[in-house]
User: What shape does this take?
Amino acid sequence: MTTKIIFDTDPGIDDAMALLFIEASPVLDLLAVTTVFGNADIDPTTRNALYLKDRFGLKAPVYKGADKPLIRPRNPSPTFVHGENGLGDVELTGLVPGEPEAKPAYQAIIDLARVHPGQITLVAVGPLTNLALALRADPEVATLLKAVVIMGGAFAVAGKPGNVTPVAEANIWNDPEAADLVFTAPWFVTAVSLDVTSQVVMTPSFMEGLEASAGPAGAFLHAISKPYAAFYGGRDGIIGCCVHDAAAVAFVINPSMFEVRRGSIRVITDGIALGQTLQKVEGELFGPSAWDDQPIQAITVGVRAEGLLRLYAETMRA
Ligand code: BDR
Ligand code: CA
Assistant: This one.
């Protein structure tokens, strides 16, 4: 029994790590890749998705998505993290420029949800703009998905409280209004947040092991991990790279590796805390607040890092 996946992504080094993990997993069935701006502009992130599809023989179609946030100007691309080309500036060997499908990403999400009601898990690991556009165009989409699992947010319960500001995580900060819409829609969202993803690190020797055991994908993953690790080493003193987006995929495969906390979630959409994510824990009592009468969503507050890394390596090896 496999889980049907739509992967919404801004590739992105760790996005590529997550996409190849989905493709390699025998328990996931990738129906579509939808792209979004974020780690680079929409043309390079879409090109990167198409490149990965071509190079690693992915069957799933690629749909191009949003090129900017819902209402605010786009932040500059973090070229100091993901390089000018979004994939750490490694050479895109044998690049055959493909074309995305004609349909926009948000429409593909809606249409696939209608074809497979209650069966699709939407894994979103970039700014949440495509999901918000889908909700706006067809609010019923929220009732048609099995689950939404995002990599995003930082809840100050563990790990790092932010990575683009002291309190904001990049995917949420890149489109805070979209994120607030997504967290307050009546679908079941789990935010695999920076609290846990900053605790899972692929070391250089882990990546060397992948290169030695996981064929062409392993060699590619090792190559793109080097500039990513250089960024983490320079900024955070981490030896290796944080496993952000692949952690959301790991949650879908084996949620028991995570500890979660339930409650309604809102996103700060102005002021110095722009993009901060805050959860009102289920059952706690306060006076009236913006968290009242909102859907109960989940955030990750703990992770078994060793188990996650083992799952990744074993999946890629198989
Ligand atoms: C998230 O931001 C992006 O840079 C990464 O791809 C990941 O999705 C981490 O904050
Ligand atoms: Ca990403």
